[in-house]
Specification:
This protein folds into two domains: 229 residues, Rossmann fold (3-Layer(aba) Sandwich), CATH 3.40.50; 150 residues, no CATH class. The chain has eleven helices and ten strands. Strand 3, helix 1 and strand 4 form a beta-alpha-beta unit. It is globular and about 60 Å long. The chain starts with a strand and ends with a helix.
Length: 391
């Protein structure tokens, strides 16, 4: 591998936000692979050294609020994504390829959906009504996309993992015993043995998960409407009390979001995944702890990112607009994306140049079995071949 030059950059987006990125470039690199996730800092993503070793430059970028998704608006995140792509086009690389891992995959698909439209046809507002500058943004399409361990989108994912047995959104310990995923009466057995839920319970549980999302949707809508009413009142009367009411962040806590039945019943949508969730080996305990998706968000972020009802960042919704050469990499031990998801994503992607492959690995690129190569190592070998074939 040639010597790698590393530079750090702060970019201004079209709506005057600041985003940062790190560009690592081996001498003579003609292709740059860009890695971005809407919620996480990917500076030290596991794929970086593998791509550099293959002679490709790597751009790792954050959104305007990395590691803080309290007010994560996906429409703003793709404005951030656009700033990085425009920057890379100006660096003189022959090819810019996006690598979207996990939630970064849906972000990349959402970006492509909007970038493929004429500026006047792009979204002008978030689901809550906040104006977004997509029409003004320079949005170059990537020359190719690698979707690695893609999950279906933050909203669709939350619907899968939210605990529907919560009966009181103000009480994290409230529970409806008939829906409790960790009750032996419903099929749960203590870890690490796999639980066994019957078909009737699974159907009732999933319907109740959707119903809980809808109840939180109603809270979010009420918050957004209250904020808008206060802003309108201020515009009319210029009363400072209305201005304050319009500025108050209306935050929604969501308890217990580590309760996907598939994480403890390995017979559901089977693959090679280990027992446990993305957050730990004991979902029956972790579900009551701090980690989890969508645990605290503004009403606007709920509507843009976490509600499957209102978010526009949904892989299957965005995928038909992805027409650039694409690679879909499944991890056979994934705890968040399952074989049926990969099949549906493959069918939905609009690219005529689509490669679908699978490697042994867990969602974040770990090994399925002790002593075996990591998923990241196996995926890197296949991604390198795919990139070389299109150089």
């Amino acid at each position: 591998m040639s010597a790698v030059t590393t530079t750090v950059h702060e970019l201004a987006t079209v709506d005057r936000a600041k985003v940062t990125g790190v560009l690592r470039a081996p001498g003579g690199a003609r292709t740059v692979v860009t890695i971005m996730h809407p919620r996480q800092d990917v500076t030290h993503h596991a794929m970086v050294p593998h791509l550099l070793e293959a002679g490709h430059a790597v751009w790792t970028q954050g959104s305007r609020s990395p590691n803080n998704d309290l007010n994560l608006l996906h429409e703003q995140a793709i404005v951030d994504f656009a700033a990085g792509h425009a920057f890379l086009r100006d660096q003189g690389f022959e090819r810019v390829v996006s690598l979207g891992h996990s939630g970064g995959a849906t972000l990349a698909a959402f970006y492509c959906e909007q970038a493929s439209l004429p500026p006047g046809e792009r979204l002008v507002a978030t689901p809550s009504g906040r104006a977004v500058a997509l029409a003004e943004a320079v949005m170059p399409l990537p020359d190719g996309i690698v979707f690695m361990a893609p999950h279906p989108g933050q909203g669709a994912l939350l619907e899968r993992v939210i605990d529907p047995s919560v009966t009181n959104e103000g009480d994290p310990l409230s529970v409806d015993p008939s829906l409790d995923p960790f009750s032996p009466a419903n099929g749960f057995v203590p870890a690490p043995a796999s639980s066994s839920y019957d078909v009737e319970f699974v159907a009732r549980y999933r319907a109740a998960q959707t119903a809980r999302i809808r109840r939180i949707d109603a809270v979010a809508r009420a918050h957004v409407e209250a904020t808008a009413a206060a802003a309108d009142a201020y515009d009319t009367a210029h009363d400072v009390a209305d201005r304050r009411a319009a500025l108050v962040p209306r935050v929604i806590p969501v308890h217990r979001t580590d309760a996907d039945l598939r994480n403890v019943d390995l017979s559901l949508d089977p693959n090679e995944r280990p027992y446990g969730s993305l957050f730990g080996r004991r979902p029956d305990l972790g579900n009551y702890g701090l980690p989890g998706f969508g645990r605290l968000s503004t009403a606007e972020a709920w509507m843009s990112t976490w509600s499957v009802t209102t978010t526009r960042a949904d892989f299957l919704r965005n995928a038909p607009a992805v027409t650039v050469p694409s690679m879909l990499v499944e991890f056979t031990g994934d705890q968040a994306s399952f074989p049926a998801d990969i099949a549906a994503m493959s069918d939905a992607l609009g690219s005529d140049d689509l490669t679908v492959t699978s490697v042994a690995g867990t969602h974040f690129g770990g090994s399925v079995r002790k002593g075996e190569p990591t998923g990241s190592e196996l995926a890197a070998a296949q991604i390198r071949t795919w990139l070389d074939e299109r150089s």
